[in-house]
Write a structure and sequence with these properties.
Elements lengths: L8 E10 L2 E11 L4 E5 L6 H9 L6 E6 L2 E2 L5 H6 L2 E3 L12 H12 L4 H7 L3 H13 L15 H13 L5 E5 L7 H12 L6 E5 L3 H7 L2 E6 L2 E7 H6 L1 H6 L4 H8 L21
Parallel strand pairs: 3-8, 3-9, 6-7, 7-8
Antiparallel strand pairs: 1-2, 1-4, 4-5, 9-10
Length: about 280
């Protein structure tokens, strides 16, 4: 999985420094179309920095990012988004006074490169409204589409964030802790909705909830000190003694490493990846 031309999203020798701190350390990574992938690592491993490099929030110090085989390393966020790379954030970035229908309408407007004026004109277009409604219903937001976002339960707000990211029909969706702060009983719904997203859409889940990770992911990459330490099928990563050592003392993770989910995680061998590998 190392050839950018064979992947929908890839990096080559990606580095990001903040002064003397190397937050992303020579990461070479590849994601095929339709992947169900998770990115994990202990606190401070550099997961969010890596996602920010992929999405264009941060420029790399060196190295490259490829989208559909094209070097997008110098592209800003909006250009990568229009080329098919979408993401959610750890913290909601929603307009509290908007309704979900208005919110998705604006997301569709951006996808059409028309801005807010397009949504004002298109508000009377049945086809555009139907598209927004269909997205909201797909993400179980149909019953609250006319409510103010600020009045919605937090779990619904997180689903709306995903709906915004899904609206432009991306090739790749980066999900940065979609269940963060969501009550335990609502996390199941988020997982079910994410699992039901189009199969051709490549998904990358960045998540601390190991139950969600091992139920969702077919493949997993483990970051340690900014380097890609281990990657492979989820079942094999769960059994890798190096991963166990990294997570030593984190009881929730150790539980899943001791009892990984049976089957369904693909075939192959987990191994060191990237040139910054073992630390």
């Amino acid at each position: 999985m190392s050839q950018a031309s064979n992947s929908v999203l890839a990096t080559k020798n990606l580095v990001r420094r903040f002064g003397g701190l190397v937050a992303t350390n020579d990461v070479t990574f590849s994601l095929p179309a339709g992947a169900r992938h998770a990115l994990i690592g202990p606190n401070g491993a550099g997961k969010t920095t890596f996602v920010n490099l992929l999405s264009g929030v941060l420029p790399p110090t060196s190295g490259q990012v490829f989208l559909d085989g094209q070097d997008v390393s110098a592209w800003p966020v909006f250009k990568r988004a229009r080329a098919g790379l979408s993401r959610t954030f750890q913290i909601n970035q929603l307009f509290a006074d908007f309704t979900p229908l208005e919110t998705i309408g604006l997301a569709l407007s951006e996808a059409h490169s028309e801005g807010a004026q397009f949504w004002r004109r298109a508000g009377t277009s049945r086809a555009v409204v139907d598209e927004a409604v269909a997205i909201l219903e797909q993400l179980d937001l149909g019953d609250v589409m006319e409510h103010r976002v600020g009045s919605l339960p937090y779990g619904k707000q997180r689903l709306l964030e995903i709906a915004i990211a899904v609206a432009p029909k991306p090739k790749v969706l980066l999900l940065d802790e979609p269940a963060a702060g969501v009550p335990e009983g609502e996390r199941e719904q988020i997982l079910e909705i994410v699992e039901a997203l189009p199969k051709e859409m490549a998904l990358v889940l960045i998540e601390h909830d190991m139950d969600l990770v091992f139920r969702f992911a077919k493949t997993i990459s483990v970051l340690v000190q900014g380097a890609l330490f281990v990657e492979g099928p989820a079942s094999e990563v769960a059994r890798d003694p190096r991963v166990r050592q990294v997570y030593l003392g984190e009881s929730e993770v150790e539980h899943h490493l001791d009892t990984p989910p049976p089957g369904g995680a693909g075939h192959g061998h987990a191994g060191e990846a990237g040139r910054g590998g073992a630390a």
